[in-house]
Amino acid sequence: MSSLLLLVLSALLTSALCCDWLSHYSQMSGESLKLIKSMGGPLTDERPVPFPNKLYSRIRRVPVHSQLAFVEETLTLMAQLFDNANMSTAGWNQTSTDKFLMTIERQRDDISSCIPSKTSAVAGLQRYFRRLEKVTLLHTGASRGAWEQVRRESWAHLVQLDVLVQQIRDQSARRR
Ligand SMILES: *[C@@H]1O[C@H](CO)[C@@H](O)[C@H](O)[C@H]1NC(C)=O
Ligand SMILES: *[C@@H]1O[C@H](CO)[C@@H](O)[C@H](O)[C@H]1NC(C)=O
């Protein structure tokens, strides 16, 4: 990486908005993990599609702005999953569900302020979410079981995003 790029990245990460976002993320993330669990009963063990572990290991080796774009895009695609289909069949606690969706949308909006122009995330992420939607919600007409699988996968993503953001934060702290 060129030193100029490093300089730009450090400036980006230490900018007020980004700092703010980075320092609040783990609290927000903890909140969304708590909410997604309180929306319904215990998380299901049924995994409708293989979890994209490869995407997560690939994203650890790309520049920070791409990692941030990945977090943003994952949150956006996740919010869309919940938005696209009829959620009344899920039978979830409405208060927790509304709060959960608000929390991930707020995280997504906050991170947007951190990303320079339009940085594209990693290839394959959209394909993964389309497939997840297809085999769960679209395939069953949004059955209760399908929603539980969507909730389970979303939880797994939030856990992984939390780890990734922690890594970004450690990197930016070392640079200061
Ligand atoms: C959602 O599903 C419920 C229960 O099946 C149904 O009563 C309601 O009309 C549906 N809403 C929409 C917008 O399709
Ligand atoms: C839904 O969750 C809220 C907390 O988020 C709780 O106060 C409320 O009692 C729950 N409602 C039902 C019907 O379980």
UniProtKB/TrEMBL annotation:
The keyword Membrane does not apply. One of its GO terms (cellular component) is extracellular space. It is found in: Secreted. GO terms for biological process: defense response to virus; immune response. Residues 1-18 form the signal peptide. InterPro entries: 4_helix_cytokine-like_core, Interferon_alpha/beta/delta. The keyword Glycoprotein does not apply. Transmembrane segments: none annotated. GO terms for molecular function: cytokine activity; cytokine receptor binding. Keywords: Antiviral defense, Cytokine, Disulfide bond, Secreted, Signal. Belongs to the alpha/beta interferon family. PANTHER family: INTERFERON BETA, TYPE I INTERFERON. This is Uncharacterized protein.
